[in-house]
Amino acid sequence: MIVAEGLSRRVLRRQLRQARRQLSPVQQRRAAKALYRQLAQHPLFRRASHIALYLPNDGEIDPRPLLLEAQRRGKATFLPVLNAWPRTRMLFQRIMPNERLKPNRFGIAEPGFRPARQRPIWTLDLVLMPLVGFDEYGGRLGMGGGFYDRSLAYRKRRKKGHKPTLLGLAHECQKVDRLPMEIWDVSLQATVTDRGWYAK
Predict the structure, then answer these.
(1) What does the alpha-carbon distance between residue 200 and residue 166 come to, in Å, rounded to a whole number?
(2) How far is CA 143 from the centre of its chain?
(3) Is 124 helix (H, G, I), strand (E, B) or coil?
(4) pTM of the model
(5) To the nearest whole number, what is the mean pLDDT of the chain?
(6) Alpha-carbon dihedral 20, 26, 30, 35, rounded to 10 degrees
(7) Burial class of residue 25, CB neighbours in 10 A (0-12, 13-18, 19+)
(8) Percentage of residues in the chain with pLDDT exceeding 90?
(9) Are 126 and 44 within 8 A, CB to CB?
(10) DSSP 8-class letter at 107
(11) What is the arithmetic mean of pLDDT over 140-164?
(12) pLDDT confidence of 87, banded at 50, 70, 90?
């Protein structure tokens, strides 16, 4: 676990990205299987009908086994897609089994842009989010683009309604004692790693 005191978010982000990139392919595969075991039979996953996930990049823990399992169970699965304009906007689009993907401007695979398959994030049941760092208090450090925070900004304004449930997914090496949070940061209900759950 990294102690955050005295470290800027930029330095934390660099150290944590380096830690997850140093994991070997074997360690990554084991972590993905362990993450699957943590979540596949959990009530939050089992009850959810509309689930957003992501495709791994830059050493992120791999949720693709969960994506395949959700599709096998007949759940509607969604991936983030970047809007052409405004370029800071991220949308959630349904992905079908075996659908062809293409890299976006960051080199991350995503489905072709199809508005008819997109759904507002507040209508989803569960969002499994990538992150760079996390703590036990719902804190999440992302890559710095603010895409998820902007998509979820409505939660700061709404007092009622709890959809979707937000779970961060991470390797255990991405844990921080306490993250420095900004006013725009959206907190997580929990973070799930290859070793366990951290709920606030």
Answers:
(1) 12
(2) 11
(3) coil
(4) 0.92
(5) 91
(6) 40
(7) exposed
(8) 69
(9) yes
(10) S
(11) 80
(12) confident
- Cα separation, 4 vs 37, in Å, equals 30
- CB-based burial of residue 162 (10 Å sphere; 0-12 exposed, 13-18 middle, 19+ buried)? exposed
Assigned token pair, 34: 């362990």
Residue 107's contacts (CB-CB under 8 Å, 6 or more residues apart) are: 57
Q: How confident is the model at residue 160 (pLDDT cuts 50, 70, 90)?
A: low
* Cα–chain center distance at 162: 17
DSSP 11-35: HHHHHHHHHHHTS-HHHHHHHHHHH
Six-digit token string for 168: 């961060």
159 confidence band (pLDDT: 50, 70, 90)? low
For residue 174, what are its two tokens?
Answer: 């991405």
Q: How far apart are CA 58 and CA 68, in angstroms?
A: 21
Task: Verify cis geometry, omega within 30 degrees of 0, for the bond prior to 97.
Answer: no
pLDDT for the residue 161: 60
Question: Half-sphere exposure of residue 94, counting CA atoms within 13 Å on the CB side?
Answer: 15
Q: How far apart are CA 164 and CA 60, in angstroms?
A: 22
CA 129 to mean position of chain CA atoms: 1
Average pLDDT over residues 105-109: 88
Average pLDDT estimate for 9-31: 95
CA-based torsion, 103, 105, 111, 114: positive or negative: negative
